[in-house]
Amino acid sequence: MLLPAGTVVTLNGISKKVMIIGICQAGLDGIGHDYSAVPWPEGFLSTDKIILFDDAQIQYVHYCGMQDREQMIFGKTVSEKWIEKKGENKNA
After folding, report:
1. 3-state class (DSSP) for residue 70
2. What predicted TM-score, i.e. pTM, was given to this entire model?
3. Which has the closest alpha carbon to 6: 46, 70, 62, 45?
4. What are the backbone dihedrals phi and psi of residue 5, each rounded to the nearest 5 degrees, phi first?
5. Residue 24 zone, left/alpha/beta (φ > 0; ψ -120 to 50; rest)
6. Do the Cβ atoms of 20 and 35 come closer than 8 Å?
7. Which SS3 state, helix, strand or coil, does residue 53 take?
8. pLDDT digits over 37-60, tens only?
């Protein structure tokens, strides 16, 4: 299942921590990514500082964002649909 918004991670090859602000994101090139994030602890600075990345690029989870019943239901539903969509795109 995808990580919730607010999660702070370190990505492979990048020493700066980032905080997830969105899931199932598409870049300007139309390519879908699992997450969008901003530098941590600074937060949103400008649109050119938003980082798009996939789950496989996460090296370490420092803090997991808030999880309650609503987020768990949302996360499960979105994760299932996202995995299905990514599978379709690989087969296209």
Report:
1. helix
2. 0.83
3. 62
4. -55, 145
5. left
6. yes
7. strand
8. 999 999 999 989 999 999 999 999
